Amino acid sequence: MSSPVTTSPPPPSGTPVGAPVLELRALTRTHGSGIAEVHALRGISLAVYPGELVAVMGPSGSGKSTLLTLAGGLDTATSGQVVIEGQDIASLGRKGIAALRRRSVGYVFQDYNLIPALTAAENIALPRELDGVSVRKARKEALAALAELKLTEIADRFPDEMSGGQQQRVAIARALVGDRRLVLADEPTGALDSETGETVLALLRTRCDQGAAGVMVTHEPRYAAWADRVVFLRDGSIVDQTVSTGAESLLAGVSEATGTNGTGGTGGTGAANGNSGTAGASEAAQ
Ligand SMILES: Nc1ncnc2c1ncn2[C@@H]1O[C@H](COP(=O)(O)OP(=O)(O)OP(=O)(O)O)[C@@H](O)[C@H]1O
Ligand SMILES: [Mg+2]
């Protein structure tokens, strides 16, 4: 099924130019019906360009994971479109979406989602092998990814022999291995101490600087400070969008947009791109 292509909103000033890697167009997701109806997303439009890392923040239940699962083709929208590298994923069919996910989309799940019967290295190598990479090459790539995350010693351990933080880093390595153009990460630093969290953010940042597009859910302003833009969700809608200039503007943005006080440190070095200020909700919601 192919849907009509609508005009995309222009990128916010200061973001990289070129075609977006990911476009969400008027996306809604409703669960249940009648009195049990839950509007997890209420019309989200967002474009993420090559080189850009976008942080998604918002209270629990605001729709952050829903946004990411739809963007990654893991769930189907009630209405609206998800366009990845110019293709409306609804037109690809299940097999096509699965192939796109293996090849182009790295996904870090909130609960890691490692396969219990596979070791760390095997978990990382699996999507590459499924995509036709030789077992030997896939293992080599997996070991290199583990080394980058300082996890060489757990390469042959199974998930139940790892700490939560180690499982989380293995899940991140699995998302980054290969030539992924879009990296979607749901609280990738949740189980990590702040030093390891910064290492993970630096890796994500580098991957985006090399041309990938990244979307990361986080509750921590110090991690969001690594992003080029922060999108704030509340009750399934984008309520604000801030160009990152570092942790302090983010802390102000968090309390303004979500009605909460920002917590977390001010350690992020950020990826300020020279712009400052907060885009209006109307611009963010286009
Ligand atoms: N399968 C489902 N059935 C019914 N409601 C659901 C389902 N999945 C999510 N929801 C609801 O949709 C809303 C958004 O959920 P979502 O998991 O996207 O929130 P979140 O922002 O990721 O929260 P958290 O910060 O706690 O992870 C919530 O109200 C949630 O209860
Ligand atoms: Mg969530």
TrEMBL record:
Gene3D superfamilies: P-loop containing nucleotide triphosphate hydrolases. GO terms for molecular function: ATP binding; transmembrane transporter activity. PROSITE patterns: ABC_TRANSPORTER_1, ABC_TRANSPORTER_2. The keyword Transferase does not apply. Residues 272-286 have a biased composition (Low complexity). Residues 256-286 are annotated as: Disordered. Transmembrane segments: none annotated. It comes from Kitasatospora albolonga. This is Macrolide ABC transporter ATP-binding protein. One of its GO terms (cellular component) is membrane protein complex. InterPro entries: AAA+_ATPase, ABC_transporter-like_ATP-bd, ABC_transporter-like_CS, ABC_transpr_LolD-like, MacB-like_ATP-bd, P-loop_NTPase.
